Amino acid sequence: MFNAFIQAFKTPDLRRKLLFTLGIMALFRFGSVLPTPGVDLANVQICVGQSSDEGLLGLIDVFSGGALLQLSVFALGIMPYITASIIIQLLRVVIPRLEELYKEGQSGTAKLTEYTRYLTIGLGVLQSATIVATAANGNLFTGCSVPVIPNDSPLNLALMIVTMTAGTGLIMWLGELITERGIGNGMSLLIFTSIVAQMPQNLFSILGGSGGLSRFLAVVAVILVATLAVVFVEQATRRIPVQYAKRMVGRRQYGGSTTYIPIKINTAGVIPVIFASSLLAMPQLIAQFGSPTSSWVQWIATNLGQTDTLYLVAYGALVFAFTFFYTAITFNSEEIADNMKRYGGFIPGIRAGEPTVRYLSYVINRLTAAGAVYLLILALLPTLAVMQLGLSQNLPFGGTTILIMVGVGLQTVKEINTQLQQRHYEGFLA
Question: What's the predicted TM-score (pTM) here?
């Protein structure tokens, strides 16, 4: 991996792309620590040290690189864009017009991207208004007595909402700039930047207290084992052979080639884990606005903690369900079978048409079951480590974060290697 980066910096074109990408990532981190106008930064630092939010806001804070609980300009991070992209993909199932746009090619994809941008801004307004209202009411940091927003006038709150929403739009633009002019997928790299930025500080925080060194070494060992498992599973694919029949067009012969359909074990990626975590974190967020003496608030606090049996069972069930649901949306067996039949392709030993659809569905269901188990183990790894190590707070990593870091790193290195091969290849006569 390091050799690929060294070779890339020796190539002028790739060096410019890498430096451009690193510059955008640095700008993104600057906006993540720049406080929003109207926020008392000193009080925010006090409240962050006194509370530990592991609910929905804690999940968003992970993807914003700690910017959310700092109430910075980039407080929302990339989450509004991720949510908007997922919503657009889900709406393709229920809105035929969106599915038609998806099948139109580049023009339809551009239209869907435009819809995603509008939805991102709308979600940015809603999420920023929720966060600002929660902070103004004193419910953002549980148990903190100092106000993080001293001036809670409507004008000041509106200014904060506009600033955070504008930050969301800027993040979306920065991600698209990386995709167009840099290396790799811009949105993925920004998420990667947010997660990696917090990792060293949170890791070394475990060293404090009794048994800090042994716990630190145990956490590092768990991270290494999880990273090896993620690399192994993410690189594994099930290759379905496809053969194309020979056909004559005029005097030329076409077809007769053999290829394959690569299907990953984890086709759904991290989406099921994000869905399940967000859904189960919603009751905890709602409970913050209720009275501590209410029976329903006490029930949520007792049964929906991250180490409670009910939470773990519901989490596992949701991860399984969302894995199959999202895979069914992204992998359409009928569409693949129709495309193969249209161009004269077939799977050896399987007839074209409906038998091919049934075979592809059979294979993807078996792989999805294995992928769901893999995601479940990876998602529960932090909670199990907390219970075994006796830590008072969640580990500074999660299965989702490791999956994103390793996945984005592998994909970026692959793209760098691809571009290196395009620029440094030996000709047939060399």
Answer: 0.77
